[in-house]
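Appendix C: a fully annotated inverse folding record. The material below is reproduced so that readers can follow the format used throughout the book. The structure is listed first as tokens, followed by the designed sequence.
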């Protein structure tokens, strides 16, 4: 696995990281054994970097990672997040220093580590100046609790404000062949400021793969059940493009998920995508995506198959988008 820089921290991480939200049932039932098998596969594939949060299963994802590391005697590089208020109305955030410290310390305890490579504010508390939050996070870094800090779902303007206080190691936003919003400023601003850009859901929440999805079979807790892109007629329109992408990948001896992931990697050397899965077999379908090199002809074909704005439906419903910073 190739490596890439984590902002200005001086840390090298695997070019592809593993998102660990799926370990706790966000997209369907999961188990400890399955999560452990997936972490085994990640380690064996050369993945060094994990992404989790104190919100994933109310800390369960972090606990699983901590248990796995203790059991296997292996230490991943870890990014985790805090700042969302559990049990409060969706979108409620607390970015105060006492709240973030309490939740960071809880994450470290569950993970069984003294520090993490990266700590994100999961959602902004908009009334609180982001400069104040950056000062809090920089204080954690100077204490040795974290190696770097970042933000999730913020705007380019907010990133500039935070970076005026201290270097921001990473920002993460949804970014993939069907979600291009970060191209309208965030990818470029991160590059300019020496910040790593971390695409989450780079596989389109499972649609950009060789596995057929059945929205009718989604469980009540599955995020996609009420997501506009997975609701008819949008889903059928979207699958027309996905089937064309599958043909493109198959004709070149690649998996569809590896192609989708390679596309994100090709958008900049400061990009570290975090595909998520709880299935070790699925992980192996894209683990070598960093080896794919597109020709000019390949790039032209991808642009024809999935032109900017091709996806039918918004990436979030009105209820799901609460708390996310919009900038376009």
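Designed amino acids, in order:
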């Amino acid at each position: 696995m190739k490596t890439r820089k984590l902002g200005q921290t001086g840390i090298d991480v695997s070019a592809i990281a593993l998102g660990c939200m799926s370990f706790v049932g966000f997209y369907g039932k999961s188990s400890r054994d399955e999560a452990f098998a997936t972490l085994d596969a990640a380690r064996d594939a050369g993945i060094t970097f994990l992404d989790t949060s104190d919100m994933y299963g109310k800390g369960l994802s972090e606990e699983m990672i901590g248990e796995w590391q203790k059991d296997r005697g292996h230490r991943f590089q870890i990014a985790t997040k805090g700042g969302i208020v559990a049990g409060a109305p969706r979108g409620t955030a607390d970015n105060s220093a006492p709240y973030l410290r309490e939740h960071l310390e809880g994450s470290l305890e569950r993970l069984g580590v003294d520090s993490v490579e990266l700590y994100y504010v999961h959602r902004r508390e908009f009334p609180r100046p982001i400069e104040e939050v950056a000062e809090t996070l920089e204080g954690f870094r100077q204490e040795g609790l974290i190696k770097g800090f970042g933000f999730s779902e913020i705007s380019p303007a907010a990133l500039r404000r935070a970076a005026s206080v201290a270097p921001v190691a990473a920002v993460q936003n949804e970014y993939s062949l069907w979600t291009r919003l970060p191209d309208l400023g965030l990818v470029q601003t991160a590059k300019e400021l020496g910040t790593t850009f971390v695409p989450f859901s780079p596989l389109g929440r499972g649609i950009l793969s060789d596995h057929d999805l059945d929205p009718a079979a989604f469980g009540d807790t599955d995020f996609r059940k009420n997501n506009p892109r997975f609701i008819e007629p949008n889903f059928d329109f979207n699958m027309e493009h996905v089937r064309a992408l599958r043909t493109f990948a198959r004709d070149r001896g690649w998996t569809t998920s590896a192609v989708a992931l390679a596309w994100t990697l090709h958008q900049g050397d400061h990009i570290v995508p975090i595909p998520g899965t709880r299935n070790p077999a699925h992980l192996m379908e894209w683990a070598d995506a960093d080896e794919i090199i597109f020709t000019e002809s390949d790039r032209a074909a991808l642009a024809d198959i999935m032109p900017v704005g091709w996806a039918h439906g918004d990436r979030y419903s009105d209820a799901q988008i609460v708390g996310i910073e919009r900038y376009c």
